[in-house]
TrEMBL record:
UniProt entry keywords in alphabetical sequence: Carbohydrate metabolism, Cobalt, Isomerase, Manganese, Metal-binding, Zinc
EC number: 5.1.3.1
Organism: Geodia barretti (Barrett's horny sponge)
Protein name: Ribulose-phosphate 3-epimerase
Coiled coil: none
Length: 214
């Protein structure tokens, strides 16, 4: 199981230090939650922060775009240094084109699936991307409660992937802590995102090590 801490819960007055701490503790990448205050109520950061994080680590960066006009901005996040970009299909009118545009930018394309979004309607799109983020909270904030039933959704996405895209990487994102790692692995997730469980911990490095050992 790989762990990509979400920087949303990091101390932004010490961002480079926070990145170094989780990198040295063994994090496999960093999850960057981009929010525009329209697609989700919260407003976080844009390409300038992605570029700043890019300058302080070689870890893979995945940008989770919770923005209303993602197609217009994917180039900026790719040029800022994102290695992977996930979009919410509801916010992308021409999904086939946006996925092709992401690949043309040499970025791994991903889909972020909201709680209760019908999975059947995403079967073809899941076959066209490299990874899927199964949201286990409603997008917009860190520190929310895990939505029970989300592991079943991971299981369903894994079943779809076995038929249509066996190499699909499945990420679970939201409300994850060490106690949920085993269930996420059993359900078929490859990667967990954790924000508050890492950066909200008294010792983020120990929290990373605990999750990696779970
Ligand atoms: C929510 C974000 C998640 C969130 C994870 O909209 O996509 O990545 O920041 O944070 P925790 O682990 O605190 O739920
Ligand atoms: Zn996220």
């Amino acid at each position: 199981m790989r762990l990509t801490p979400s920087l949303l819960s990091a101390d932004f007055t010490r961002l480079a230090e926070e990145v170094r701490t989780v990198e040295e503790a063994g994090a496999h990448g960093l999850h960057l939650d981009v929010m525009d205050g329209h697609y989700v109520p919260n407003l976080t950061f844009g390409p300038i922060v992605v570029a700043a994080v890019r300058r302080c680590t070689d870890l893979p960066l995945d940008a989770h775009l919770m923005i209303g006009n993602a197609p217009e901005h994917i180039r900026a996040y790719a040029e800022a240094g994102a290695d992977a970009i996930a979009v919410h299909p509801e916010a992308v009118p021409h999904l086939h084109k946006t996925i092709a545009d992401l690949r043309a930018l040499a970025v791994r394309p991903g889909l972020a699936i909201n709680p209760l979004s019908p999975l059947a309607s995403l079967e073809e799109a899941l076959a066209a991307v490299d990874y899927a983020i199964v949201m286990s909270v409603n997008p917009g904030w860190g520190g929310q409660r895990f939505i029970e039933g989300s592991m079943d959704r991971v299981r369903q996405v894994r079943k779809i992937a076995e038929r249509t895209n066996p190499s699909l990487e499945i990420v679970i994102d939201g409300g994850i802590n060490a106690s949920r790692i085993a269930a996420a692995r059993d359900a078929g997730a490859d990667v967990v995102v954790a924000g508050s469980a890492v950066f909200g911990a008294a010792d983020p490095a120990a929290a990373v090590r605990e999750m990696l050992a779970a």
